[in-house]
């Protein structure tokens, strides 16, 4: 039975249960792992279990006490959840320390200082920690350094390289692994309408999901699934044809419709494919771990670059992803991204 109904992270849960039993729960945690593996859900269930009046063995919430009922309804006064609003590039400062008229009289940092209203502790969950601005991170530092007694702060991000060093060094880091492909397939199949499931398609989506349930759901779109392999082929081609790649990517993005949100979502997916490619190239070169998926393995082998140019390409692709969040012009962004990939230090061989 998976911990609190979340698949794939029993080892992490067991670690928290041990820490709790010994009274050694830390004040600050940074959850790191790919998008869509259940980190956010894990953080919320952990918050519920930590505030539960009578948790069962293994740090499992009782689901019956007043605290559990409030946590489940999302109205627990001692559980604070902050996420980046859809239309903003970063987590607004006022969510952490109140607006200009209510500095440190509102916001997550201020609420953490209050006495717990229900149980023994307060828990704060900061989703989208990848999107903390430097200014917001600075406001958090003091709270992270000296969390109020009994308080637990959980930041949830996707990659360590996306966190500011000042945040990273003040948190205990908890890694969430990608889910096994079979597990992704099982959950994906269970989500389909009865009679709608196409076994071959589900398998292909799960195989390309890199252990992320969110990615697998996205890949149920046939066009996206096909374009993923096209991106791998283009990136694996030497010399890289940046202009061709930019043209194909833009055409694919514009085919999502006239509205900006679906276009941005498509470009985000394409850049995630590129990240997957370059991260696989780093692993392949640095640790001699070839990708399990044949299409990705073939493209990475044909790229043949070292881990250094691959890591630089990862950083550039993350910059491009951040550009989408800043509402950059997509055509300019795609041109700039592909142009950088063509630079001599990244295009290691011609
Ligand atoms: Zn309870």
| H/E element order | HEHHEHHEHEHEHHHHHHHHH
Strand tally is 5
Return the CATH class of the largest domain: Alpha Beta
Q: Ligands in the structure?
A: zinc ion
Helix content class: 40-55%
Shape: globular
CATH homologous superfamily name of the largest domain? P-loop containing nucleotide triphosphate hydrolases
Rg estimate, integer Å: 22 Å
Kindly estimate the percentage of residues that lie in beta strands according to DSSP: 5-15%
**Mean pLDDT score:** 92
Write down the CATH topology of the largest domain: Rossmann fold
> Do you know the CATH architecture of the largest domain?
3-Layer(aba) Sandwich
Low-confidence stretches: none
Written account of the structure:
The protein is an alpha/beta fold. The chain has 16 helices and 5 strands. It has 2 domains: 3-175, Rossmann fold; 221-341, no CATH class. It has a 5-stranded parallel β-sheet with strand order 2-3-4-1-5. Zinc ion is lined by residues 52-54, 61-62, 64-65, 67-68.
Features:
52% helix, 5 strands, Rossmann fold, single chain, 350 residues, 5-stranded parallel sheet, alpha/beta, globular, 2 domains, binds zinc ion
